[in-house]
From TrEMBL:
Coiled coil: none
Catalytic reaction equation(s): 8-oxo-dGTP + H2O = 8-oxo-dGMP + diphosphate + H(+); 8-oxo-GTP + H2O = 8-oxo-GMP + diphosphate + H(+)
Xref: PROSITE patterns: NUDIX (PS51462)
Organism: Persicirhabdus sediminis
Cofactor(s) listed: Mg(2+)
Protein name: 8-oxo-dGTP diphosphatase
Keyword DNA repair found: yes
Enzyme Commission number(s) from the entry: 3.6.1.55
Key word Hydrolase present: yes
GO MF term list: 8-oxo-7,8-dihydrodeoxyguanosine triphosphate pyrophosphatase activity; 8-oxo-7,8-dihydroguanosine triphosphate pyrophosphatase activity; 8-oxo-dGDP phosphatase activity; 8-oxo-GDP phosphatase activity; metal ion binding
Length: 141
């Protein structure tokens, strides 16, 4: 099975809430929740792909901070390697352009959603890691 490289954003707002996006009814794994992102195109860096995907899916801007561990998962129709990054929301509010709905959640609420299988592994790491606490480092982009 072909491996598809995918990137996702764990977006945190000024209230330290995390953005969860529900997959639309016409998408695979419809109704499950995910961190927004998508496929890395040929020749794109992970950061460029992440900025493009977030602009396309949510029409918002963000600062990219540190990466988490990549997750490899095989779905019945595809195998993906998911590269997650902590991100901070900037001025614009995310819009549900491709998702059924968006939710801002406190870190302890993340485990209460029905996450897609690959994203569920990221939720576990975020909870173990303690999330994106106020950072003293510069964003990656």
């Amino acid at each position: 099975m072909l491996m598809v490289e995918v990137v996702c954003a764990i977006i945190v707002n000024e209230k330290n809430q995390y953005l969860a996006c529900q997959r639309a009814s016409h998408q695979s794994n419809a109704g499950t929740w995910e961190f927004p992102g998508g496929k890395i195109d040929d020749g794109e860096s992970q950061q460029v792909a992440l900025e493009r995907e977030i602009a396309e899916e949510l029409d918002c801007d963000m600062a990219i901070f540190r990466p988490l561990q990549p997750v490899t998962h095989s779905y019945p129709h595809i195998k993906i390697r998911l590269w997650p990054y902590y991100c901070r929301q900037l001025a614009s509010q995310p819009q549900a352009l491709e998702h059924a709905q968006l939710k801002w959640l406190e870190i302890e609420q993340l485990s209460g959603l029905d996450w897609s299988a690959a994203d569920a592994k990221i939720v576990e790491e975020v909870l173990q890691d303690g999330g994106l606490t106020p950072v003293k480092t510069e964003p990656l982009s």
